[in-house]
Specification:
7 strands, alpha+beta, two-stranded antiparallel sheet, SH3 type barrels, elongated, 5-stranded antiparallel sheet
Amino acid sequence: MRRLGLIILISAVLLSISGRLWAQDVYYVQSVRAKIMSGPAFKSKVLGEASKGTKLMSSGKDGNWIKVTFYSKEGYVSAMLLSTHPPMERQSLIKGGESDIKQSVRRRASTYTSAAAARGLTADDRRRLSRDEKVDYEALEKIEAFAVSDDDVRLFREGKL
């Protein structure tokens, strides 16, 4: 009776291990395109390309490379381009039709705006923004002007400051 129990236990362990050895993991391409290489190196021959969201079956790993089956061919894909989860769908925060968006959004800043941004804010602009936007430019200038001497650093390290 003990012998039969032992045989059943060993058989169960071997079956669970063999199932893991033959199991294939599923990976999804996360980048726009992923090259399927003939070997686990970027210098290997390119067997093909998989597009974003392509489901690939894996039979193992080799360093940072995942061994995959692609159109009945064995190849390798960099693990950085794959995930075990499908890629997320593209989400948009802007509501409205395409024509509404094109009419209400400027594609690029005008030359005047770009030049003004390069010049920085004038004193009047800073006063107006400080009042309207609650931005304290005076405090920012004090922080930017603050300097710590080497002696202050040494005293701080020694615990005397």
